[in-house]
């Protein structure tokens, strides 16, 4: 095993992604914030964890990204010491057509309704 | 307070329903099973808790219905000693257009894909 593969993070394959886990991953305001941000980057856009200001400790932030990764919502790949994150939009759209877009729309509607970003 | 109102259960008003709570409520296989069943009853269809065979203890079943009620996903009203349940489809569709339908479609797609009712 090379040092590169030793630093590969585990992801569910497309067929292993479960709706319940995706909904759980998206049921937290901070995780929704991460997904909302990554969605603005376009289909293959990616960003380091540090690009998203969650105002929590590093370990809490790492936890939220891990929940999203393990549910199959995001892909995380090391680049140097940083983890780069991108939405698994194609996988999610293939398994659950329209789901991610509808949830992002619902999130945007709620942000507008509450007028405070939440 | 009449004995009837004393037995009224608390529900969030439409404007108090939050996306995160709805997604959390739907992130459990048994709660998805309840919602899937109620959705088959049509727009104003309702059913007692006992109509849905969850194969769990009464207290666990009661917990799952309560999570759905407190998130604003279902309405529960006493009729005699039974609680009647119905989906708050209109409220959810008003707040989050398409969300409930898309999640039910995703659930149906997953059931077909896994071929085991989950």
Automatic annotation (TrEMBL), chains A, B:
Task: Identify the residues that the record assigns to the HTH arsR-type domain, covering every copy.
Answer: 11-107
Record key words, sorted: DNA-binding, Transcription, Transcription regulation
Question: Does this UniProt record's set of keywords contain DNA repair?
Answer: no
InterPro entries, alphabetized: ArsR-like_HTH, HTH_ArsR_DNA-bd_dom, HTH_MetalResp_TranReg, WH-like_DNA-bd_sf, WH_DNA-bd_sf
Top-level taxon of origin: Bacteria
**Does Metal-binding count among this protein's keywords?**
no
Query: What is this protein's record name?
Result: ArsR/SmtB family transcription factor
What phylogenetic lineage does the species belong to?
Bacteria, Bacillati, Actinomycetota, Actinomycetes, Streptosporangiales
């Amino acid at each position: 095993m090379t040092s590169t593969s030793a630093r590969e993070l585990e992801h569910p394959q497309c067929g292993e992604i479960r709706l319940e886990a995706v909904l759980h991953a998206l049921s937290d305001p901070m995780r929704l914030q991460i997904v909302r941000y990554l969605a603005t980057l376009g289909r293959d856009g990616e960003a380091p964890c540090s690009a998203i200001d969650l105002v929590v400790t590093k370990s809490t932030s790492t936890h939220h990204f891990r929940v999203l990764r393990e549910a199959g919502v995001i892909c995380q790949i090391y680049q140097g010491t940083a983890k780069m994150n991108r939405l698994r939009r194609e996988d999610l759209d293939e398994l659950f057509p329209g789901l991610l877009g509808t949830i992002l729309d619902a999130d945007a509607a709620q942000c507008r309704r509450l007028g405070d970003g939440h």
